[in-house]
Amino acid sequence: MRIERFRWWHIAEVLGIEEDLFGAEKWSPAMFWNELAQRERNFYIVALDEGLLGYAGLAVNDGEAWVQNIAVRRTAQRRGVGREMLETLLGEAERRAIKQTLLEVAVDNAPAQQLYAMYGFEPVGIRRGYYQPSNTDALVMMRDV
């Protein structure tokens, strides 16, 4: 497996993962184009082997970073892909001298919460009805360096 910068030509494959994992809450192509266009502020990556295994993103603003997405194709889950991408994002935050990294995760996504906790993220709040249209709450987690 290798980690590379997310480029525009990866969008088509990423959209398939988005549809499968997030359904009605998936990001649109325009949302990905917008994120990729902000190269100074955003850092997006893909995990590849024979094909695209997953993608992840980090947004940096005013001295803090937010993990935007970490999504792994179902057939590649439980193989360390998400962990490797998270480590890459945290390395980028460190390279940019970011002291605080935050993220939102669905309150019912225990495996992701456990992964984040392994890297020092702790719950700091709840965003009620954050994920739409399912109205699912998001747990806000934070990691200080």
Pick out its properties.
about 140 residues, about 30% helix, 4 helices, alpha+beta, 7 strands, globular, Aminopeptidase, 7-stranded mixed sheet, single chain
Amount of beta strand: 35-45%
CATH topology: Aminopeptidase
Low-pLDDT windows of residues: none
CATH superfamily: Gcn5-related N-acetyltransferase (GNAT)
Give the radius of gyration: 14 Å
Mean pLDDT, to the nearest integer, reads 95
Structural overview:
By secondary structure, the protein is an alpha+beta fold. It has a single domain (2-144), classed as Gcn5-related N-acetyltransferase (GNAT) (Aminopeptidase, 3-Layer(aba) Sandwich), CATH 3.40.630.30. The protein contains 4 helices and 7 strands, in the order βααβββαβαββ. The chain has helices spanning 11-22, 29-37, 81-95, 110-118; strands spanning 2-5, 42-48, 52-61, 64-72, 100-106, 122-131, 136-144. Strand 6 (122-131) and strand 7 form a beta hairpin. It is globular and about 35 Å long. It starts with a strand and ends with a strand. The mean pLDDT is 95. This is [Ribosomal protein bS18]-alanine N-acetyltransferase. Belongs to the acetyltransferase family. RimI subfamily. It catalyses: N-terminal L-alanyl-[ribosomal protein bS18] + acetyl-CoA = N-terminal N(alpha)-acetyl-L-alanyl-[ribosomal protein bS18] + CoA + H(+). Its EC number is 2.3.1.266.
